[in-house]
Specification:
By secondary structure, this protein is of the alpha/beta class. 37% of the residues lie in helices and 23% in strands.
Length: 128
């Protein structure tokens, strides 16, 4: 039985996507899906059978923010854990979904894993 958590990573910056993917791939706990921007993320949310965690940057090109994508993720995958990331100092954790965990860039791999574990705990999932 596959116990890996599926993580949708949403960011406009390819280097950020690769970095997060690299951190998560270094463990045996996660399989990742990368989405560059809100359009790709929305498509994955509709087409994926199961997504356990979404990690979304707040600032995305297009009409939707990472907060919007996170809300859509919760609607389509009610048990999804949410981690919202940003480097924007104007964004505060009060703006993210109630179940979400806020993580300010730059962050390290250990901080990322802790945030995912906390987010999974908020929706009753197993922590990483």
């Amino acid at each position: 039985m596959d116990t890996k958590k599926t993580v949708l990573i949403v960011d406009d910056d390819v280097l950020v996507l690769e970095s997060i993917d690299l951190h998560l791939s270094a463990t045996d706990d996660f399989q990742t899906i990368r989405a560059q921007g809100s359009v790709g993320a929305a498509s994955h949310l509709v087409n994926a059978q199961k997504i356990d965690v979404i990690i979304a940057d707040v600032v995305l090109a297009g009409s939707m923010t990472g907060i919007d994508i996170s809300q859509k993720a919760i609607e389509q995958h009610p048990a999804i854990a949410v981690v919202v990331i940003t480097a924007d100092p104007e964004v505060h954790c009060a703006e993210i979904p109630q179940r979400g965990v806020f993580l300010r860039k730059p962050f390290g791999g250990e901080q990322l894993l802790e945030a995912i574990g906390e987010a999974l705990g908020r929706v009753g999932g197993d922590s990483a």
